[in-house]
Every structure is written in C-alpha cells, then in structure tokens.
C-alpha cells in the first residue's frame, strides 16, 4: 500500500469511527432551540443578543442567571455541540470546508502579491470557539493597562479584569489523580517539567474548562530547543512577564471534548433551570438584517431587531432593555452599517447616526510557516494517525479522552521580545529612526512561535514525516478596515428589492515595511530553534520549506519575497468597533461597550479591542460578558469577561469582556440587572411587541433607518455549497 492509499484508508477508518461515535455520544437536544414560531414565540425580550458566538453565548448565560430576565439569541448557524466532528479536537479540520465556516476572504492584498487570504470563522452556535484550536492565553498585563490608560477606558486594567477571568474558568489541576473529585477519571500522566502553571491566576469553579492535554514527544523537543537557545521557561502563559517558552493550556474538558462557549455556558448545568429553562430562547439558522432604532426627541435608542428565520420569513422582535451586538470582528461593523450607524452605504439605508470609526482600525496578526522534514522515528500527527495507529488512537480517545485525537496540534509556543532575540536589529532600527515599539510594555512580547507536529502547508506530500513552526508578528504596524459591498439582486415578492451585503475585509497586510523586517528577524530566530532540534538525536530533521538555500538568512530580498508570498492570517483580528471616550473620533463604543450616540445598544466581541492583544483572543472575550450594561460611574466597567478564550493560533476572546461589561453580581444577580431597566418615561408595554408590524410612532418615537421595500441578505461568496 502506497502513502496515498494509506491516507485514504486512514481517512475512511477515521470517518467510520467518527460515525459510530456520533451516535454513541449523542445527548438529548435542549429545549428553547426550536425553529421560530410566529404564533407562539414572544416578540419582546429583556435582552436580544445578535450572534450566538464566542461572546454571545456567555453573555446570554450570565444575563439569564436572573430568573426574571428573558434573553433571545439570534444565530446564523446551527447547533453542532453534539456532533463528534466538533467535540473531537482533531475533527475541526473537517469543518473548514463545510457550511459551518463563514468562508470569508480578504480583498486582494496589495502588499502580499495581490493574494486573497482566507479568514476562518465559525458559523454555528459557539462561533469560532467551536472551530478554533482551543488554546487559552489572556495577553500581557501591560496590554490591558494600555487599554485602560492610553486609550481612555477605565476599569480595563489586568488587576480589574482578572476576577472575571477566574470566575469563568474551571482549571483542572494536572496534579490531581482519579481519586480526587475534580481529577480525571482516565489514565493520565502528570509531567511536572511540562505541566506548569501559576495557581493564583486561575479559577476552579467556573463553567469553562482549562486543562493540559495530549503532548507529542516532538513537542518536548521544541521546548528543549528553546531552553538550549536561552529562551526562559514561562511557567504560565497568563503570567507576567509574558515572555518565554510554555506548554499550551486548552479549552478541553477533562474527557478530551472541546468546550466551546455554547457547550460551557449554555449546557444544561450552566444556567439555573437546566434544560427546562425558558429564559433563553435561541433562534438558529436566522440572519439578522438590522437593528431597529427609535428617535424620540433627538434621543436615538435601539428598540429591537429584524431577522430572517430559517424559512426566509422576515421577523421583528423588540427589546425592553438592551440590544447586544455579538456578531464578531467582521460582521458587527457591517450590522451597524446595515442599521444606518457609521456612514451611508446605500440609498435604501438612511444614515441614522454617523460614527467615523465603524469598520476602521482592523489589525490582524500575521503568520508565516517554516516546515521541517523529520526522521520517521519522530512522533508527529502523521505518524500517530497512520492506518496502523488510527484504531488504537481512536480507542484511546473514545474510551479515555486521550491520545492524538484529543490534540489540536499546537501544544507549545514561545513568546519573544525583539530586544532579546535580536538586539542588533533593534539598535539598527533606532539608528535609522525607523524603530516602532509595538509592544505595550517590557512584559509584552513582539513575536510568537508555535510548534505544530505536522506539515503546515498544502498540499501535503505523499511521503515523509514533518513538523512546522508558525511564526506570528503579534502587534503589526499595518492597519486595515472592514467595509461592505452592497448589491441589489432580484427577490421574490412584488416590488421588493434584495440588498446583498458582502463583507469586504482588508487587513492591509505588510503595508508598513517595518512588519516585514520584524517577520524577517522572527524567521531567523525560528531557524535557530530549528537548528537546535536538528542537532537533537531524538529529533533531527532538515528544513523542508522554504529551505535555507532558497531563502538564506543573510538575503533580505529573498526573505521579503518569501514573506510577501507566504503571509497568512493568525485568525485573531480585532478592533473594528474600538472602545474609547466620545471625544475620540475613532471610538465606536465607550468603556462600558455602549455605542456612542445610541442608547440601549452595546457591542460585545473582539471588535471593541482598541488595540490587538499579544495573545489568543478567545480568553479575552470572557470578561466582556460579566458587567451589567448600566453601571454607575462609581462602578468598575470590566467589559472583558466573555473574552476568555484568547489563545492565539486560532482562538477568539469573548468571555471576560461580557462579564466585565455587565458587572454581574453572582451572589445576587437580580440586583445589578435591575439597574438595566429603561427609564420610567419610556413605554415598554407589550403593545409595541405584540405585532411585528406595530407602529413605533404611536408610542412617541419615530423608527428610523427603515425602508420597507428592501431587505438585507448576507453573502459569503467563498462558500460553494455544503461539502
């Protein structure tokens, strides 16, 4: 059997096992997720959450802790929590070409050889936390200090958001054995030299698991090579200074199952009431078209939303308290534009409120890969998942939640500062007056190198054993933006226009030459680590791509050409609805995530980051979802609690932001949430919501931004149908 046949046989065996596991692992679906029923469903809720992704799920769960609160989640995707392809970490690669990915692409990148670069984003309940690499890091402390001080967002220092990180987290201490009530019920080996952490930084009673999981022996070789090269050991990626080599923490349950925010925060045990709860209504396969805005005496206020249900029928729902926009870094600004907030995009969409910063300030850390060909004795993903090994590995996973199938490959990384890895580069840049200090402080890294025990480039060669480095510039100088292309297309119905909105994502990669020079230095240092691994008798190997002869370290032109040819996204974009004070013309929301100029509307996702975090975004979203929307000026607006999945290689941050933004009192959640009630002079009677066609003007206000002859649909041209 040749290598191609081996791969096909392996895939077939894996799919067969996954199919069997799907049925054996299925759990009862929860109530509250049935298709929209216009006759039975309420048309008014206390809160409407637009987007059931990484932050939206956490935010809804926290709000629903008050038994008197009703929450509606409107989500474009499906509920995939019980699907093995989502639960099993290695299954995620099968989702990238499915309908469960938004299939977004950038515009042709002028400074990256005109290439169109894909942006993977989860289109399912849990959002990108259901499709990411599950890595958990929070970002350097000085990043949060910079948000609070430099960008004018009080309450966002690391010391202030740390309690929200810990409240959302259930850290599994690797030292605990099967006999402990919080220990694993499966055979695991504690590795004290690798499974390091700082206990005081972690919480143990929250719903979101953080744990150490599978580690390839080749990952140990990467850690050893870093230490031999003088890189310090970082005991915990959430510690300070955030510099050194570390073992990756993951958002996996102790049984090896991915813990998306939907599984962690919307599961039957996450909200009082369990599966019988009626306070959270989740509408799936529904596309939000716009946020409804009322203008009363020159005061603009969000009063609800319009969406197309799974049948394509236009529905309207109203809100008693607040609309919470959680559509993500690319879709949140477009939904604001579709609602007339930002700037005018089409004659059928009147401008309701101008905000210069909507869609601007897009920053996406970018990546290049270096690939090594290893001897066959080196344990990598390819060796673990051969036809010979797939059955034993499947048994280990489905029986114990361990083994190669419980890994998402990025098991170790190092955070590095340019001053440490290339002081001569820093001196030269300063001498030339071209130096840009992109790190927020001396505890913050400029570079991340992640180790992948696999071939991280396509197509995969038929033969050979490989490992790769993913080299990331964490805070690039190049900035881009998100806009939208609006196209009128024929639609069913008399006189009805169909407005198709297509996200136009332009990260503007490599527009600033400084980014190219920084990546060049990072690649040179990555090669130093690679040479250390080559000299290790337990590792060995040779650089396979790009190859040191093809792209020598001393050839700046060749390095630049390689970078322009190979740069791709780290999938950690942020900043398109940045927070800041009202006198900052670029700010879209304030420090409590309230949209400037629009009452009862907040944005709660990674789009609000005023500057990208040097880490992985998923963890950072957790504080966003813990702060009550209307807090007094004396209360601390920690809006980051939903942003807790901040792990860099493919994660998104949302839990901390939500918790901080809402400042929920866990002991008495009803108390702070009561402060969210609308002013007494605002009529929130069910009369408004009794019928989707109610006339807002009858209640003293005028609905703005609506043209009854048009509706909006989302376009994802990169997706050609379910595969």
UniProtKB/TrEMBL annotation:
<feature type="domain" description="Glucose-methanol-choline oxidoreductase C-terminal">
    <location>
        <begin position="502"/>
        <end position="619"/>
    </location>
</feature>
<feature type="transmembrane region" description="Helical">
    <location>
        <begin position="6"/>
        <end position="25"/>
    </location>
</feature>
<keyword id="KW-0812">Transmembrane</keyword>
<dbReference type="Pfam" id="PF00732">
    <property type="entry name" value="GMC_oxred_N"/>
</dbReference>
<keyword id="KW-0472">Membrane</keyword>
<comment type="similarity">
    <text>Belongs to the GMC oxidoreductase family.</text>
</comment>
<dbReference type="GO" id="GO:0050660">
    <property type="term" value="F:flavin adenine dinucleotide binding"/>
</dbReference>
<keyword id="KW-1133">Transmembrane helix</keyword>
<feature type="region of interest" description="Disordered">
    <location>
        <begin position="680"/>
        <end position="699"/>
    </location>
</feature>
<keyword id="KW-0285">Flavoprotein</keyword>
<dbReference type="InterPro" id="IPR007867">
    <property type="entry name" value="GMC_OxRtase_C"/>
</dbReference>
<protein>
    <submittedName>
        <fullName>Uncharacterized protein</fullName>
    </submittedName>
</protein>
<dbReference type="InterPro" id="IPR036188">
    <property type="entry name" value="FAD/NAD-bd_sf"/>
</dbReference>
<dbReference type="InterPro" id="IPR000172">
    <property type="entry name" value="GMC_OxRdtase_N"/>
</dbReference>
<dbReference type="Pfam" id="PF05199">
    <property type="entry name" value="GMC_oxred_C"/>
</dbReference>
<feature type="compositionally biased region" description="Polar residues">
    <location>
        <begin position="683"/>
        <end position="697"/>
    </location>
</feature>
<feature type="domain" description="Glucose-methanol-choline oxidoreductase N-terminal">
    <location>
        <begin position="45"/>
        <end position="364"/>
    </location>
</feature>
<dbReference type="GO" id="GO:0016614">
    <property type="term" value="F:oxidoreductase activity, acting on CH-OH group of donors"/>
</dbReference>
<keyword id="KW-0274">FAD</keyword>
<dbReference type="InterPro" id="IPR012132">
    <property type="entry name" value="GMC_OxRdtase"/>
</dbReference>
């Amino acid at each position: 059997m040749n290598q191609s046949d081996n791969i096909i046989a392996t895939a077939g065996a894996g799919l067969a096992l996954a199919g069997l596991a799907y049925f054996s692992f299925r759990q009862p679906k929860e109530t509250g997720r049935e298709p929209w029923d216009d006759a039975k469903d309420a048309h008014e809720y206390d809160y409407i959450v637009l987007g059931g992704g990484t932050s939206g799920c956490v935010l809804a769960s926290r709000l629903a802790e008050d038994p008197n609160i009703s929450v509606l989640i409107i989500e474009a995707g499906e509920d995939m929590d019980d699907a093995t392809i989502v639960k099993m970490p290695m299954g995620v690669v099968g989702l990238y070409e499915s309908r469960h990915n938004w299939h977004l692409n950038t515009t042709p990148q002028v400074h990256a050889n005109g290439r169109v670069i894909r942006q993977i984003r989860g289109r399912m309940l849990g959002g990108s936390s259901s499709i990411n690499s599950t890595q958990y890091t929070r970002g350097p402390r000085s990043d949060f200090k910079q948000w609070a001080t430099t960008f004018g967002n009080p309450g966002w220092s690391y010391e202030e958001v740390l309690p929200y990180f810990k409240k959302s987290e259930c850290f599994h201490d690797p030292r605990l054995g099967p006999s402990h009530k919080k220990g694993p019920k499966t055979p695991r080996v504690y590795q004290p030299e690798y499974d390091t952490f700082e206990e005081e930084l972690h919480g143990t009673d929250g719903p979101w698991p953080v744990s150490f999981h599978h580690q390839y022996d080749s990952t140990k070789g990467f850690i050893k090579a870093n230490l031999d090269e003088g890189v310090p050991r970082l005991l915990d990626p959430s510690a300070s200074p955030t510099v050194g080599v570390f073992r990756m923490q993951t958002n996996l349950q102790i049984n090896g199952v991915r813990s998306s925010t939907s599984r962690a925060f919307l599961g039957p045990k996450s909200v009082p009431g369990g599966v019988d709860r009626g306070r959270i209504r989740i509408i799936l396969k529904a596309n939000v078209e716009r946020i409804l805005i009322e203008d009363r005496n020159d005061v603009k206020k969000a009063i609800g939303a319009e969406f197309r249900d799974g049948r394509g029928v236009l529905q309207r729902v109203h809100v008693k308290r607040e609309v919470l926009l959680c559509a993500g870094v690319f879709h949140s600004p477009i939904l604001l534009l579709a609602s007339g907030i930002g700037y005018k995009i089409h004659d059928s969409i009147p401008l309701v409120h101008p905000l210069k910063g909507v869609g601007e300030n897009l920053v996406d850390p970018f990546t290049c890969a270096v690939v090594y060909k290893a001897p066959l004795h080196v344990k990598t993903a390819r060796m673990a998942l051969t036809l010979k090994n797939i059955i034993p590995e499947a048994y280990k996973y489905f029986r114990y939640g361990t083994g190669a199938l419980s890994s998402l490959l990025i098991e170790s990384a190092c955070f590095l500062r340019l001053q440490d890895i290339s002081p001569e580069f820093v001196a030269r840049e300063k001498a030339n007056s071209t130096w840009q200090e992109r790190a927020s402080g001396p505890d913050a890294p400029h570079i991340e190198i992640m180790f992948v025990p696999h071939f991280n480039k396509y197509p995969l060669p038929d033969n050979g054993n490989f490992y790769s480095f993913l080299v990331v510039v964490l805070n690039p100088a190049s900035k881009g933006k998100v806009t939208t292309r609006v196209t009128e297309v024929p639609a069913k119905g008399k006189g009805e226009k169909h407005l198709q909105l297509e996200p136009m994502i332009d990260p503007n990669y490599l527009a600033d030459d400084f980014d190219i020079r920084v990546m060049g230095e990072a690649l040179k240092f990555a090669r130093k680590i690679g040479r250390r691994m080559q000299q290790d008798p337990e590792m060995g190997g040779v650089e396979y791509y790009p190859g040191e002869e093809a792209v020598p370290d001393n050839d700046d032109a060749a390095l630049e050409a390689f970078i322009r040819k190979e740069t791709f996204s780290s999938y950690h974009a942020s900043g398109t609805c940045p927070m800041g004070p009202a006198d900052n013309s670029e700010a879209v929301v304030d420090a409590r995530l309230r949209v400037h100029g629009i009452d009862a509307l907040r944005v709660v996702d990674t789009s609000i980051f005023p500057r990208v975090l040097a880490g992985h975004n998923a963890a950072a979203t957790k504080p966003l979802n813990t702060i009550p929307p209307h807090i007094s000026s004396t209360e601390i607006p920690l809006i980051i609690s939903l942003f807790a999945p901040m792990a860099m290689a493919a994660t998104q941050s949302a839990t901390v932001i939500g918790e901080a933004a809402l400042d929920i009192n866990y002991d008495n959640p009803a108390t702070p949430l009561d402060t969210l009630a609308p002013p007494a002079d605002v009529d929130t009677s069910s009369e408004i919501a009794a019928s989707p066609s109610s006339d807002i003007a009858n209640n003293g206000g005028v609905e703005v931004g609506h043209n009854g002859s048009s509706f909006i649909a989302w376009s994802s041209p990169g997706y050609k149908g379910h595969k």
